[in-house]
Amino acid sequence: MNNKSISQLEGWSWNQPIPDEDNSSYEEYNFYVLHKKPVNEYTPEDLGFMITQESGLKYVLPLAIGILKSNPFVSANYPGGLLTSVLGLPKTIWEQSPHLYNEVKIIFDNAKNNLENVEELKGSYRTIKYIRSVFIIFQNNIVISK
């Protein structure tokens, strides 16, 4: 299944002029390209982008969680980028997927306790500050699992 693209998995098609690198915004072009790319070829950056766009979450969120379990601060444009993309999802997403939320909550708890020890973040005060702000938002959106 993951060797298919989001377009194939969701039966989605682009209904506007095909974007290109020169005449489209980064977001529009990347959105189009990633919908055509097989999900199993996604990088952490690709996963972070799709999660931020809330597109194909049924397929990309479990992949992202799998990566985050082994490295919560994996780089996706910056160290911790994939984690902040996942933690930045709205509460309604987590309410629809409590099993995924429970996995992310464990990752979050471990990451929160180890933020100061992440080698890739040493000296990156602005990034650490941003990650902390995302942590606070996530904590305030805690979902009560049933």
Write a structural description:
InterPro entries: CdiI (IPR040547). The protein is mostly helical and 146 residues long. The chain has a domain of 99 residues. 58% of the residues lie in helices and 0% in strands. The chain contains eight helices and no strands. Helix 3 crosses helix 4, helix 3 packs parallel to helix 5 and helix 4 packs parallel to helix 7. The longest helix is centred in the C-terminal third of the chain and has 17 residues. It is globular and about 45 Å long. The two termini are 30 Å apart. The model has no long low-confidence stretch (mean pLDDT 89).
What is the gist of this entry?
The chain has 146 residues and is an all-alpha fold. The protein has helices at residues 6-10, 26-36, 44-52, 57-70, 81-87, 91-96, 98-114, 125-140. The protein has a domain at 42-140.
Overall structural class, as computed from helix and strand content, comes to mainly alpha
Approximate shape: globular
How many beta strands in the DSSP annotation? Answer: 0
Question: How big is the Rg?
Answer: 16 Å
List the helices and strands and how they pair.
Blueprint: H1 6-10, H2 26-36, H3 44-52, H4 57-70, H5 81-87, H6 91-96, H7 98-114, H8 125-140
Helix pairs in contact: 3-4, 3-5, 4-7
